[in-house]
Amino acid sequence: MAISMYQASIPIFIRNLNNLRAILEKAAAHAEARKIDPAVLIGFRLYPDMFAFGKQVQVAADHAKNGAARLAGIEAPTSENTEKTFPELIERLQKTIEYLNTFKPEQIDGAEERQVTIKQGDSSILYTGQSFLLNRALPNLFFHIATAYDILRHNGVELGKADYLGKN
């Protein structure tokens, strides 16, 4: 049996955002236990031209939210990107997960050939739904979650591969 577009997208988005939420909870506890100002971790970046931790979380949530909406052929709700604390970032992930839970298989299945257009400046990139999911939405989600994880590991938060992968 073939995997459907819904199965390859919505549950994957939700699982990975839940894993990221658990990672943020560990980071918040780490900061509290070690008397570290959470703003230091949230504002930390691995290199000057990379997004800071908080922005990595926001962008990961956006790739899941916008990816689902584009596959369904609808407009995604906008986010203000005002989160500055662990509780606010966790709430953003929770709201994104709740939004993803509103999608039904019939909205996503069959989107393999649906045209998805991504505007970048004055130009546009055209994808089929399947190409968009496999070559843009999922890789970007994984990239930003892995980068957020790496920032926290670099700063001493006790995380392991099992935190990134989550429970089976």
Short description:
The protein is mainly alpha-helical and 168 residues long. Helix content is 59%, strand content 7%.
Q: Poorly predicted ranges (pLDDT <50, ≥5 residues)? A: none
Order of helices and strands: HHHHHEEHH
In CATH terms, the superfamily is dinb family like domain
Strand order of the biggest β-sheet:
1-2
Structural class of the helix and strand makeup?
mainly alpha
Helical content, roughly? 55-70%
Q: Kindly give the count of domains.
A: 1
Give me some keywords for this one.
single chain; 168 residues; mainly alpha; Four Helix Bundle (Hemerythrin (Met), subunit A); two-stranded antiparallel sheet; 2 strands; 7% strand
Could you please describe the fold and organization of this structure?
The protein has 168 residues and is mainly α. The protein has one domain (10-165): Four Helix Bundle (Hemerythrin (Met), subunit A). It is 59% helix and 7% strand. It is built from 7 helices and 2 strands; from the N terminus they run αααααββαα. The chain has helices spanning 10-33, 38-42, 53-72, 86-100, 105-108, 129-154, 161-165; strands at 115-120, 123-128. Strands 1-2 form a two-stranded antiparallel sheet. β1 and β2 form a beta hairpin.
